[in-house]
Design brief:
25% strand; 34% helix; 3 domains; seven-stranded antiparallel beta sheet; five-stranded antiparallel beta sheet; single chain; alpha+beta
Amino acid sequence: MPSVPVTYSNEIRPRMFFRNLTLFRFSAPVAADLERLEEALPEHRLRPVGPLEMSTRGFISPLGRNEEALTHNVSHNTMVTVGGEDKLLPAAVVNDELSRRVQKIAEEEGRKISGRERKRMKDDVMNELLPRAFVRSSRMSAYADKKHGWLVLDTSSRKSAENALTQIREALGSFPAVPLAPEESPRVLMTDWVSSGDLPAGLALGDECELRDPATAAGAIARCRRQDLDTDEIREHLRNGKQVFQLGLIFDDRITFTLGEDLILRKIRFTDVVLDEQGDSHESQAAEMDANFALMALEFDRLLGKLEEWFKLPRPE
């Protein structure tokens, strides 16, 4: 009987490359403490959400479902994945059922419902509906570059990144990673890149940007996509006082991304130059994970080193 190629569903197979980067930094002494992750995480493994719970958070294997290991190490980089289970219980469903019960009491007993009783009834509705609610699973991967002091999270949401960081802190007892503290203003520097056309070596303009008037919160906004940014039209916006808040960039013809003034990297894509280095086949999913994690971390290592240089991002001491 001919063999059948192994395939993985999107639900089971981990995504190979990060699509967004939210970054934190940590010191060398903190990096040494990360060696405890492997032994600390099992007590904080994701458990199924309970019948009367809205959500749970915990660690799952970066290698995918049915794998036991909660960390994955390649060189000086350690990957972890925070998983979640959330009940889907729309407020409209709860409110409709509550309204039905309130109306029934009004019709049968001829009285109004007090605020306190209404709250109790809403809690009862929630408790009855929760066990029957659908559960949505989620996962967010991150890795710690212990050599250079980067915590790299695959998300563009600062809130989601902070929640994942909290999970790591709870597992270790303490993890003093801090947000980036650029000494060079990203907004000012990116505005200068576009207005002057003078970019650092290896960096080129992409085809999108977001320009805003920083004078007021409700200032004019200009968004450009699939457009040449080296034009008089763009420079005219800058001469009129707008600044660059997001900028599409190409790094060494290997990575394309959009950089925000918050230094979050979005829409990350590796070019064919990088993808051609992946190789065609691997003996196992673990071997494929190793190869792609190593390739991704190497590319990000070079890019983050340049971000550190361009924006002067100090590593905590």
